[in-house]
Automatic annotation (TrEMBL):
<dbReference type="InterPro" id="IPR014729">
    <property type="entry name" value="Rossmann-like_a/b/a_fold"/>
</dbReference>
<feature type="transmembrane region" description="Helical">
    <location>
        <begin position="41"/>
        <end position="63"/>
    </location>
</feature>
<feature type="compositionally biased region" description="Acidic residues">
    <location>
        <begin position="277"/>
        <end position="296"/>
    </location>
</feature>
<dbReference type="InterPro" id="IPR051599">
    <property type="entry name" value="Cell_Envelope_Assoc"/>
</dbReference>
<feature type="transmembrane region" description="Helical">
    <location>
        <begin position="12"/>
        <end position="34"/>
    </location>
</feature>
<feature type="domain" description="DUF218">
    <location>
        <begin position="83"/>
        <end position="252"/>
    </location>
</feature>
<keyword id="KW-0812">Transmembrane</keyword>
<protein>
    <submittedName>
        <fullName>YdcF family protein</fullName>
    </submittedName>
</protein>
<keyword id="KW-1133">Transmembrane helix</keyword>
<dbReference type="Pfam" id="PF02698">
    <property type="entry name" value="DUF218"/>
</dbReference>
<feature type="region of interest" description="Disordered">
    <location>
        <begin position="266"/>
        <end position="296"/>
    </location>
</feature>
<keyword id="KW-0472">Membrane</keyword>
<dbReference type="InterPro" id="IPR003848">
    <property type="entry name" value="DUF218"/>
</dbReference>
Length: 296
């Protein structure tokens, strides 16, 4: 139920659709008794279209998300047991229609999964993603990603498929269950999560809530860093797309936190424990009444 409700509500709440609905409402009202209010609403919609589409607003929204989790140091500690790559990197319904792999803007997820699999030849690749389509059902995303990785030279016996999940929370829960079933979640196993940088906070929160300790490997960056904070867009469509994407993550963080799907409102990297810090002894008398320090 959560999956379908989230899809329906987001269609109406995403900024680009809200602006379009305002424009439609104002246009209709212009031809009614409320024509003055109709003109005001049309003017507001036009103003929002320009601000959202051309200003750096999209970058302001996405930068805190992309900068939240740095990449883990893969050279420190044991080699990863495996990499978990989340679905959402393909246009499956187009790929099936054309009988060709069709990556979308998040295609870096698959590309980097293949690169890391070659870099660590003994590591596994767990692929999580079912059919998340509503209007255009397209089959398992995990199967599509597995086919691409196999064509890139990754042996199929290294691939672990979870093909039932439809959202990030299900990614975490069902991937954990699949790896536990294969006895791949021991205390010494190390798993690295691959997903879009802006999506990483919500994904890490979901995996932590599921009791699955993973390390972040963000990909699919949309900004260069702080230097893009004041960079405007040269196409209204690009600015709208960026704001829609970032707003979806912020709304998703709030909705997931309120429904108990993440462990925090804005998940953050865990602070490393400094082993050099030695706790100071507690002051006060010992049990036998003698002072803690010897008298000179």
């Amino acid at each position: 139920m959560f999956f379908y409700l989230a899809k329906l509500l987001w269609f109406f709440l995403q900024p680009s659709c809200l602006i379009a609905f305002l424009l439609l409402l104002g246009t209709v009202m212009v031809w009614t008794y409320w024509a003055r209010w109709g003109r005001r609403i049309v003017a507001l919609a036009a103003f929002l279209l320009l601000v959202v589409g051309l200003s750096p607003l999209g970058n302001w929204l996405v930068l805190p998300l992309e900068d939240r989790f740095p990449r883990t140091d893969l050279e420190e500690g044991p080699a990863p047991t495996g990499f978990i790559v989340l679905g959402g990197a393909e246009q499956r319904y187009i790929g099936e229609g054309r009988d060709a792999p069709t990556l979308n803007e998040a295609g870096d997820r698959i590309v980097e999964a293949g690169m890391l699999a070659h870099r660590f030849p003994d590591s596994l690749v767990a692929i999580s993603g079912g059919d998340a389509g509503m209007l255009y059902p397209s089959g398992s995303e995990a199967l599509g990603t597995a086919t691409i990785l196999a064509e890139l030279g990754i042996s199929q016996d290294r691939l672990v498929l979870e093909d039932q999940s439809r959202d990030t929370y299900e990614n975490a829960k069902l991937t954990k269950a699949e790896l536990e079933k294969r006895e791949l979640l021991g205390p010494d196993d190390r798993w690295v999560l691959i997903t879009s940088a802006a999506h990483m906070p919500r994904a890490m929160g979901c995996f932590r809530q599921a009791g699955f300790d993973v390390e972040p490997w963000p990909v699919d960056y949309r900004t260069r860093g702080p230097e893009d904070a004041w960079r405007p867009f040269d196409k209204v469509s690009e600015g709208l797309r960026r704001v829609d994407m970032a707003t979806r993550e912020w709304v998703g963080l709030l909705a997931y936190w309120m429904t108990g799907r993440t462990d925090a409102l804005f998940p953050a990297p865990e602070q490393p424990i400094d082993s050099t810090e030695v706790p100071e002894p507690e002051s006060g008398p010992q049990e036998d009444g003698e002072p803690l320090t010897d008298a000179a």
